[in-house]
Amino acid sequence: MSQEKKSVGLYGFTGCNGDQLVIIHSEDQLLPFFDSANIKSFSLAKSDNDNSELDLAFVEGSISSQEQAEHVKAIRERTRYLVAIGNCACYGGIQAMELGAKGWDQRFRKVYGDGFFINRTPIESKPIDVFVNVDFYLPGCPIDARQFFYCFAHFLQDDEPVFPDYPVCAECRWRENDCLLLKGELCLGPLTAAGCGARCPSHNLTCLGCWGPMKEANIGAEFNLLKEKDYSLEEIKRRFRMHTGSGMMKPLKKLLGAL
Amino acid sequence: MAERYFIGKVQWSTLLGGWMEKYQILAPQKHEGGLFLEPVSMENLSTIVYDAARAVQPLKAFLFPALEEVTGEKAEPEKPWLFLGIKACGLSALPILDQAYGGEFADPHYQKRRQESLIVSSDCSQPWETCFCTLIGGKPYPSEGFDLNLSKVWDGFIVEAGSARGKALLEGHDEVLKEVVKEEAEALDKMRKETVSKIEKQNKEYRLPADLQKLMAGSWESDVWKVHSETCVECGACNHACPTCHCYFLDDVTRKEFVKLRGWDACQYSGYAVTAGGGTPRPHLYERFRNRYFCKIKYLFENYNRLGCTGCGRCIEGCQGRIDMRAALNDLTK
Predict the structure, then answer these.
(1) Which domain holds residue B288?
(2) The CATH fold of domain A6-156
(3) Same domain (yes/no): B74, B122
(4) Within 10 A of B281 (CB to CB), how many other CB atoms are there?
(5) Sign of the alpha-carbon dihedral angle for A162, A167, A172, A176
(6) Per-residue pLDDT band at B140 (split at 50, 70, 90)
(7) Which residue is closest to B229 within chain A, CA to CA?
(8) ipTM for the assembly
(9) pTM for this one?
(10) Contacts across the A-B interface (CB distance below 8 Å)
(11) Are B79 and B22 in contact (CB under 8 A)?
(12) pLDDT, tens digit, for every residue of A88-127?
């Protein structure tokens, strides 16, 4: 193609780098991936990263320090599109599950004591979109390689990728699994966005909600359903907040306030 | 009266054994959670449950599978299917699928499977709690749509041929096909009447008008949709379990070559019917919920001249939120 290649950057903030690892692990896609764009920055894969102008930035991880917040703002300023990849970037992830009701200051002190941080001012961990505008969300813990390359290919063509708002239940039925919720287990399938291919339920494990909340999910109905099945409020809340942090907790708080 | 004979159970099993060579026989077997259509071999021939009630899987699970590749060359199944023990509620779903996947834009995959397979239905005698065929104008025994129908009577079956292919199946087996005697015919009528009254009895709290179209016509603005959809978790089980639901979703997969997958869709999902640009005709849950009822009772009836509900009760059985189609329709009459 005569068209100029697009400039792409991949960045990681607070998280396990699992999403970048998924990309690196897609060996059969790596050559076309590096060939189809100018990969200006890929912190997990290469060392000669620069801060040049970008067409497309993929950002993984949540923001948990003042410095990271400034960095992500700087990335936003020099990129045309910004895509949040992985649950930490999209919803805050496990580090944003707000466990323990005593507030962030006390939780932080409990873990880190009164130590000081060099070149870093810690703040409460938040998803990317608290600080910058996000053009597209690609959830998952970690992301699915197929979804990533689909998304990547679409952005290279200046096209917005489309992932329909389906719950995990859709993919679960495509695999013809038995319904775990019907068996009385604490499965978050109906509340969770599809994309994983119903990996866990296909191995008879309940859905943990690692793809984040499905748009328009009826969280209240599932919450009441699980309570009827004799799960305690604590258990349900723990499962709800585990992977999606604020993503699921916000609507749940609204609901509990109303109950 | 159509062509019908009495056949002993042992003789019937022998016939089945003979058909195994030519057909992949699928028949209901009892497991935890209900009856499941499973491949029949010499080992499980004796445990086939003929009468009882409908299986967990609807026929569409075979004719229009949950997920399949629709591009490229397809691996051919070794033998055509012979479905055994399909109930009337399963048969009455087929005209809808036939019309949806037939006609001007016929689906070759569905058509091939449908035309090659044979259906040996049977009378229902032990309906599940969720069964309500009589409430919606059906009967627990088939009158059309089968190749052969079996009615369990005493120590054998009354077998009725419903098609030329069904007749052909019985050809050359005159020695085991006996004339139906009066007592057997009476026993059959009694059994059928008993099953009908069983289903009527378990649904006696629900009363639906004969003209369901009129009922639906005045119900668009009803509160029923909001009230009954309150406990819906939008898992789509009602759609997927339904023998007449046939909406599908196409997905592209890049493998060595381009592949298109077709999977079951569900109108209860917020992503259903979303257009380019993100618009949706049914943004609220109650609207999607209402759509299912209107589709089953009104739209399918108008387009295919058939109710989309056969009263099989699978949507009730599979629902997390304990939403009951009977109760919702019944509340519309109030």
Answers:
(1) 212-332
(2) Rossmann fold (3.40.50)
(3) yes
(4) 11
(5) negative
(6) very high
(7) A221
(8) 0.87
(9) 0.90
(10) 86
(11) yes
(12) 999 888 888 776 667 888 888 888 888 777 778 999 889 9
